[in-house]
Write a structure and sequence with these properties.
Helices cover about 65% and strands about 0% of the residues. The protein contains 4 helices and no strands. It is elongated. It starts with a helix and ends in a 15-residue tail after the last helix.
Amino acid sequence: MVFGWAQIIMDIQPLVVLITGEGHLHGFSYTYIGATLVGLGSALTGKYTAEFGLRFIGQDRYLPNSWPVAITSALIGSAVVTRQSNRTLRDRAAKRWSFPRHRIHHRKGVFA
Protein backbone atom coordinates (compact mmCIF):
# COMPACT_ATOMS: atom_id res chain seq x y z
CA MET A 1 0.00 0.00 0.00
CA VAL A 2 2.87 2.38 0.73
CA PHE A 3 4.35 1.67 -2.71
CA GLY A 4 1.14 2.84 -4.38
CA TRP A 5 0.88 5.83 -2.04
CA ALA A 6 4.37 6.94 -3.09
CA GLN A 7 3.38 6.78 -6.75
CA ILE A 8 0.24 8.84 -6.10
CA ILE A 9 2.29 11.48 -4.25
CA MET A 10 4.81 11.55 -7.13
CA ASP A 11 2.03 12.30 -9.61
CA ILE A 12 0.65 15.32 -7.76
CA GLN A 13 3.26 17.71 -9.19
CA PRO A 14 2.60 16.78 -12.86
CA LEU A 15 -1.15 17.00 -12.17
CA VAL A 16 -0.77 20.57 -10.90
CA VAL A 17 1.26 21.45 -14.00
CA LEU A 18 -1.39 19.96 -16.28
CA ILE A 19 -4.17 21.86 -14.51
CA THR A 20 -2.40 25.22 -14.28
CA GLY A 21 -0.30 25.01 -17.43
CA GLU A 22 2.72 26.43 -15.60
CA GLY A 23 6.01 24.77 -14.76
CA HIS A 24 7.76 21.64 -15.97
CA LEU A 25 5.75 18.47 -16.34
CA HIS A 26 8.43 16.46 -14.57
CA GLY A 27 10.04 18.92 -12.18
CA PHE A 28 12.13 18.56 -9.04
CA SER A 29 10.18 15.61 -7.70
CA TYR A 30 11.35 13.56 -10.69
CA THR A 31 15.05 13.98 -9.91
CA TYR A 32 16.78 11.38 -7.76
CA ILE A 33 17.07 13.80 -4.83
CA GLY A 34 13.44 14.87 -5.16
CA ALA A 35 12.25 11.26 -5.46
CA THR A 36 14.19 10.38 -2.30
CA LEU A 37 12.53 13.22 -0.39
CA VAL A 38 9.12 12.28 -1.73
CA GLY A 39 9.81 8.64 -0.84
CA LEU A 40 10.71 9.50 2.75
CA GLY A 41 7.65 11.73 3.08
CA SER A 42 5.49 9.02 1.58
CA ALA A 43 6.88 6.50 4.06
CA LEU A 44 6.02 8.76 7.00
CA THR A 45 2.46 9.39 5.85
CA GLY A 46 1.90 6.09 4.02
CA LYS A 47 2.65 3.88 7.01
CA TYR A 48 -0.16 5.41 9.01
CA THR A 49 -2.48 5.68 5.99
CA ALA A 50 -1.94 2.00 5.21
CA GLU A 51 -2.59 0.98 8.81
CA PHE A 52 -5.80 3.02 8.84
CA GLY A 53 -6.91 1.49 5.54
CA LEU A 54 -6.18 -2.06 6.71
CA ARG A 55 -8.17 -1.49 9.91
CA PHE A 56 -10.99 0.08 7.89
CA ILE A 57 -11.36 -2.96 5.62
CA GLY A 58 -10.95 -5.39 8.53
CA GLN A 59 -7.53 -6.82 7.66
CA ASP A 60 -5.97 -6.48 11.11
CA ARG A 61 -3.82 -9.57 10.58
CA TYR A 62 -1.45 -7.52 8.37
CA LEU A 63 -0.80 -4.99 11.14
CA PRO A 64 1.45 -3.39 12.19
CA ASN A 65 3.45 -2.24 9.20
CA SER A 66 7.12 -2.07 10.13
CA TRP A 67 9.16 1.04 9.42
CA PRO A 68 11.77 -0.78 7.28
CA VAL A 69 9.02 -2.18 5.04
CA ALA A 70 7.28 1.21 4.77
CA ILE A 71 10.51 3.07 3.94
CA THR A 72 11.68 0.46 1.43
CA SER A 73 8.28 0.34 -0.28
CA ALA A 74 8.06 4.13 -0.53
CA LEU A 75 11.59 4.54 -1.87
CA ILE A 76 11.07 1.84 -4.47
CA GLY A 77 7.71 3.36 -5.42
CA SER A 78 9.18 6.81 -5.97
CA ALA A 79 12.29 5.45 -7.72
CA VAL A 80 10.23 3.43 -10.20
CA VAL A 81 8.35 6.53 -11.33
CA THR A 82 11.59 8.53 -11.55
CA ARG A 83 13.31 5.80 -13.56
CA GLN A 84 10.40 5.59 -16.01
CA SER A 85 10.32 9.37 -16.35
CA ASN A 86 14.05 9.64 -17.03
CA ARG A 87 13.82 6.88 -19.65
CA THR A 88 10.93 8.68 -21.36
CA LEU A 89 12.83 11.98 -21.38
CA ARG A 90 15.94 10.26 -22.76
CA ASP A 91 13.89 8.61 -25.54
CA ARG A 92 12.27 11.93 -26.46
CA ALA A 93 15.67 13.62 -26.64
CA ALA A 94 17.01 10.82 -28.85
CA LYS A 95 14.07 11.21 -31.23
CA ARG A 96 14.45 14.98 -31.29
CA TRP A 97 18.12 14.86 -32.27
CA SER A 98 18.06 11.83 -34.54
CA PHE A 99 18.28 12.22 -38.29
CA PRO A 100 14.81 11.99 -39.86
CA ARG A 101 14.75 8.88 -42.03
CA HIS A 102 11.77 10.00 -44.09
CA ARG A 103 13.94 12.69 -45.70
CA ILE A 104 16.46 10.23 -47.09
CA HIS A 105 15.97 9.76 -50.82
CA HIS A 106 17.20 6.41 -52.08
CA ARG A 107 17.97 5.63 -55.66
CA LYS A 108 15.94 2.81 -57.03
CA GLY A 109 17.59 -0.56 -56.49
CA VAL A 110 20.41 0.67 -54.22
CA PHE A 111 18.87 -0.44 -50.93
CA ALA A 112 16.60 -3.23 -52.19
